[in-house]
Amino acid sequence: MKSKWSRLEALAGAEQRVKQMVQDIVKHYETRQEAMFGKAMIVIMSRRIAIELYSEIVNIRPDWHSDDDDKGIIKIVMTGTSSDPEHWQPFIGTKKRSDQLARRMKDVNDELKLVLVRDMWLTGFDVPSMSTMYIDKPMRGIT
């Protein structure tokens, strides 16, 4: 099962696919914002893909990013350890950070409008203003 998952993750996280997915998501999200207000969540199958997707989105929409957790339109919500790669460390958060981002996401007036998640916030996370969920992971046979 791990071997199958690893092969699928490699295909899903291929550079060309990530770039195309970013183009599609950003176009759809911006078009949707013109029609109606709403926040969005992107559900990704791995932390690696989440970071690559985030980086690519920020590459085409740099004004969406902020190093400050109290600012920015887009964030990644994920856990990790100090042994994770160094370039992942800015995205790894504590429970306190996750709670802070959750409050921001639930606040209709907050500029945070797009979050990338792997497993966190998938169940029991009620955000009335969240109108869109992009799912890019198998929903069967996972934790």
TrEMBL record:
Gene3D superfamilies: P-loop containing nucleotide triphosphate hydrolases. It comes from Sporosarcina limicola. Residues 98-140 form the Restriction endonuclease type I HsdR second RecA-like helicase domain. This is Type I site-specific restriction-modification system R (Restriction) subunit. GO terms for biological process: DNA restriction-modification system. The keyword Transport does not apply. InterPro entries: HsdR_RecA-like_helicase_dom_2, P-loop_NTPase, Type-I_R_enzyme_R_subunit. Keywords: Restriction system.
